Amino acid sequence: MKKPLKILVIRLSSMGDVIYTTPVVRCLKLQLPGAEVHFLTKPLFKYIYEGNPYVDKLLLLHKNLSETIQEIKAEKYDYLIDLHNNLRTSIIKIKTGIPASIYKKQPLQKWLFLKWRINLISKKHLVERYLETVAFLGIKNDGQPINYYLKQPYQLPDLLPVSHQNKFVVFVIGATHFTKRMPNEKVARICREINLPIVLLGGKDVQANGEEIASFTGKKIYNACGIITLDQSVFLLSQAEKVIGFDTGLTHIAEAFDRPIASIWGSTAPELVGVWPYQAKKAEVVGVDLYCRPCSKFGFEKCPLGHFKCMHEIPDAQLINFANNTQ
Q: How would DSSP label each residue in 52-63?
């Protein structure tokens, strides 16, 4: 009888990239009889795989890379699936000598697109490109969404005021870089026209933004930014009637719950990073065509040209109609 495989999948960061690895892990576990599947990431992103039934063991990157390498060697893996492909994972592959399959990042194609608008980037979603790394094992795309498993059975009355416990729209206002976020006054203007109560989600870094937006709109908005945990925020995503959000991990996680999503793109663009709502039945990608967009894969702290048209020129009506459409 053939010995079941033992496989390590690696993606160290960031939130969105790690969440999009979950179909790879699921397909490996379900399609390889008896396979033992482990996952390695940074401690900051362990919450994405905690409680995931398709992972047999979660490894966390040590500050000292040699400790991680020793831990990997001790497990005696048959294959290493490198979905990050950076210097650290290259060192891990060299030092462990484990047969590896590597995700191809397409840096030249992305540079050509950003610099000269020559688009030779793969049209496949990031999940599909991740899955190509395990095709040699006979793994097929199962066509299912990403996975996220809530850590506790939360209740709406514990997290929201009475006015927001029935039906509500979530607006994810957090994002790492300024040029991924819509100006506060524009968010407030859109929120004023949305019929349902609104819950703002994000971390402490945008808590003040949420307070300013809420001050423009009154009791219609509940600012949960920086107040509740990330896991509680995900629970609210799972209960929302609609989700509006920027190119950020929390918006992507909403795809695990089949919520109608309006995904807003400013200085970045889906075709550059290969990410848009994956297997979501009701989703809109929102952005405007400009000669200067996209200007970055990750975003900037300010618009390089000073006008920030990529956010200012997004029609308010598109997002208002998305939120108010009951069909």
A: -TT-SEEEE--S
Residue pLDDT, tens place only, 20-43: 999 999 999 999 999 999 999 999
CATH number, domain of 92, equals 3.40.50.2000
Distance CA 110, CA 19 (A): 22
CA separation, residue 134 to residues 8, 140, 314 (Å): 11, 8, 39
Question: For 124-143, how does the pLDDT look when each residue is reduced to its tens digit (9 = 90+)?
Answer: 999 999 999 999 999 999 99
Q: How many CB atoms lie within 10 A of CB 65?
A: 14
Residues 114, 179, single domain; the answer is: no
**What whole-number distance in Å separates Cα of residue 126 and Cα of residue 140?**
15
- Residues 184 and 241 occupy one common structural domain: yes
Segment 140-176, tens digit of pLDDT: 999 999 999 999 999 999 999 999 999 999 999 999 8
Distance CA 191, CA 179 (A): 20
Q: What are phi and psi of 320, to 5 degrees?
A: -65, -45
> What burial class does residue 176 get, using C-beta atoms within 10 Å of its C-beta: 0-12 exposed, 13-18 middle, 19+ buried?
middle
